Amino acid sequence: MTVTASPRLPKPRSVTPPEGAGGVMLAVLVLALMLGGAVLAGWLLSGLTARLVPGAPPYMILVYLVATLLLLMPVTARLVPWITNWYYLFPALVFLSAFTVLPIVLTVNYAFTNYSAVNSGNPDSGVRTAASLSADRRVVTLAETPEASSLSDYLRCKSATCTGDTIVLFDEEASVPVRAAVANVSGRQVTLAAPVAGTLAVANATRINRYGHVGLANFREIFAKASRALWPVFLWTVIFAFSTVVINALAGLVLGILLYNKRLKGRNVYRTLLFLPWAIPAVISVQMWVALLNQQFGIVNKSLGLLGIAAVPWLNDPLWAKVSVLLVNLWLGFPYMMTATISALATINEDLYEAASIDGASRWQQIQNITLPLLRTSFTPILLSGFAFNFNNFGIIYLLTKGGPAQEGREATAQSTDILLSWGFNTAFASSGGQNFALASAIALIIFFLTLAISLVNFRAAGVFEEARK
């Protein structure tokens, strides 16, 4: 009797998802690869579509991306059956990539370029010149070459022949710019790689303000001017964050202890009134303080004048402006610290105070030996998070002083009350900074590493690493 061996069946793939942190990371990796593949396919297909159909809308990349994802999801589910249990993470991964990962990648990339309002990759309208097109629609003749001695200099070509570079063509209304590839140049004539579409009546031409990678040039510029921007701004940022945390914590601690006293009549009314500065939006509160601290018409100086005190330049003097920032930030921040203190006091056992009273301890001794030591654990993370928040507290600086007043010997973008974040903002978006997005990105990277270093020191001081090891 002959026994035939049955064919070996393939081992079924597991539908049980991996467990633990390793399983989560593996699932995220599979989803990330699927998303990355869809983005790559969308980018390639949209580029191909733009070449074949120049009038195709830009949102086609999203159409291709979604279509590719719809194809990849069932294919991935067949190859890795357990991944369907993790598809709920996909929306979070998409939003994380779009609003966190992509901005970080772009910021790092721009930090090593010369990207700015001048070098933006867009047509340069400032040097637009009249142009005419030949009968075969392949040769563009320029009337002049503004700000340049030759056509290659005008177009800022990578080579003398300008082969592969780009020229921008406009019609009479200059409504829609058309980018055309250059084959070569001669005199004031530009030979195009392909004929211009018959629907375009060329009347003007200009160049592309292209940007490129410049290595560490932005960082060298920052450290070359460190004494006029980086170091004074960094020092004030640390002083501002540290002083704000200390002052607000002391004020909140004192008020919290006073208002927690159950024998205090009307304490709920006092709590409500003192909570109002935190309830009112900071934009409104800060604008109110700008009016109150006005040197000539503000009610603060008017009140000081009644007492025979000269008007104080609250927002017009570098030193007083710093004091004003701390005072206004105290107004905005002490209710939070007060509320945190009251909440933390509610967790302390009342029997401790009764036992201390029986032993003859005074109210101050109870605060010193019971309240403060027990509040330390609750307040440590609050103080550390408060320092991290105020280190990048752009709102109070921008709304109250806009970084000013001006201070002699400082960069126009880094004035007396500017912190690191407002310095970067001024560099990127203010006219004084020339909208230098690349330099602002370099500043953002420096802020990131400084914040990371400070956070590591804070975590070490708070014992976070020791807790994690346990």
Automatic annotation (TrEMBL):
The lineage of its organism: Bacteria, Thermotogati, Deinococcota, Deinococci, Deinococcales. This is Maltose/maltodextrin transport system permease protein. One of its GO terms (cellular component) is maltose transport complex. The chain crosses the membrane at residues 21-44, 56-75, 87-112, 233-260, 272-291, 327-348, 382-400, 437-459. It holds the Pfam family BPD_transp_1. Residues 234-458 form the ABC transmembrane type-1 domain. It is found in: Cell membrane. One of its GO terms (biological process) is maltodextrin transmembrane transport. Belongs to the binding-protein-dependent transport system permease family. MalFG subfamily. Keywords: Cell membrane, Membrane, Sugar transport, Transmembrane, Transmembrane helix, Transport. GO terms for molecular function: ABC-type maltose transporter activity. CDD domains: TM_PBP2. PANTHER family: MALTOSE/MALTODEXTRIN TRANSPORT SYSTEM PERMEASE PROTEIN MALF (PTHR47314), MALTOSE_MALTODEXTRIN TRANSPORT SYSTEM PERMEASE PROTEIN MALF (PTHR47314:SF1). It is a multi-pass membrane protein. Part of the ABC transporter complex MalEFGK involved in maltose/maltodextrin import. Probably responsible for the translocation of the substrate across the membrane. Gene3D superfamilies: MalF N-terminal region-like (1.20.58.370), MetI-like (1.10.3720.10). It comes from the Bacteria.
